[in-house]
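Model it.
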Amino acid sequence: LMASGITMQDPLSTSVAPTAQIGRDCLLGPNVIITGSSTVGSGCCIEPNVFIRDGVIGSNVLIGANSVLLNCRIADSTQIAPMTCLNGAD
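Modeled.
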């Protein structure tokens, strides 16, 4: 991932599923977990301790620390506050 233009602040604590797609120029904080068929657009900042499963995240999105996003669709240039829990399946 890092060779693809993605910055991981702590690669040893960051987990990205092989089925997930991450755009260029993204910053992944420590303890970020991205699973399932998630896609993350370019230029995103995902702060520490975020969990994303089967999400579609637009470009230039900021996801605040300690957030959980399940089955969500997030539009371009959206800012998600820290400690947010979203479940698109509800």
